[in-house]
């Protein structure tokens, strides 16, 4: 009887411990990373909470709801949307280093959307007789199509972060 009681108690403790560990593992943990690593692994990180630092290169003037951050090399940039505790980004943040916490998101531009966009750009080119703005847009469209072809996809992915909090890094 004592063996049965001991075995039952041990089994309850084992199951309880396994359940506790299972719950712990299912919680999303924040991954501290760099902008370059986020962009390199973006497809796998969609939905994951990340924390990273960067230099604010631009804050959208109209709403302040978007900021663009550069990594330390200046080669990689990522858009951060104001969500959670962030009500908006102050334009005075431009040029400052900040640490952001947020969730990686993906927006897919369908091939159909890109085709329609290209037609609008071409119509604008014809109306304005070209221009740097339209040629830059056509270059972006070409890059999107090249990426889709190289990756055998019928969409183009744009990765960004829904920022939930940030702090100025001194």
Question: What's the structural blueprint in terms of helices and strands?
Answer:
Blueprint: H1 2-26, E1 31-32, H2 35-40, H3 42-45, E2 49-59, E3 66-70, E4 77-82, E5 97-110, H4 111-128, H5 132-150, E6 155-168
Helix pairs in contact: 4-5
Quick take:
The protein is built from 5 helices and 6 strands, in the order H-E-H-H-E-E-E-E-H-H-E.
Please state how the strands of the largest beta sheet are arranged side by side.
2-3-4-6-5
CATH superfamily: Nucleic acid-binding proteins
Rg from alpha-carbon coordinates: 23 Å
Q: What is the architecture at the second tier of CATH?
A: Beta Barrel
Please identify the top-level CATH class.
Answer: Mainly Beta
Please indicate the percent range of residues in DSSP E strands (runs of 2 or more): 25-35%
Low-pLDDT ranges? 1-27
Structural class: alpha/beta
Structure description:
- The protein has 170 residues and is of the alpha/beta class.
- It has one domain (31-168): OB fold (Dihydrolipoamide Acetyltransferase, E2P) (Beta Barrel), CATH 2.40.50.140.
- The protein is built from five helices and six strands.
- A five-stranded mixed beta barrel has the order 2-3-4-6-5.
- The protein is globular and about 50 Å long.
- The protein starts with a helix and ends with a strand.
């Amino acid at each position: 009887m004592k063996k049965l009681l001991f075995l039952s108690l041990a089994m309850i403790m084992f199951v309880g411990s396994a359940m506790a560990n299972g719950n712990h593992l299912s919680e999303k943990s924040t991954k501290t990373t760099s902008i370059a690593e986020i962009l390199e692994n973006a497809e796998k990180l969609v939905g994951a909470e990340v924390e990273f630092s960067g230099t604010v290169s631009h804050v959208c003037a109209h709403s302040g709801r978007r900021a663009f951050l550069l990594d330390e090399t200046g080669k990689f940039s990522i858009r951060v949307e104001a969500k959670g505790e962030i009500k908006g980004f102050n334009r005075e943040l431009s040029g400052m280093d900040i640490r952001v916490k947020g969730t990686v998101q993906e927006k897919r531009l369908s091939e159909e959307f890109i085709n329609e966009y290209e037609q609008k750009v071409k119509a604008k080119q014809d109306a304005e007789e070209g221009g740097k703005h339209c040629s830059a847009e056509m270059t972006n469209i070409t890059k999107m199509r090249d990426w889709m072809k190289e990756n055998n996809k019928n969409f183009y992915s744009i990765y960004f972060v829904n920022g939930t909090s940030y702090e100025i890094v001194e």
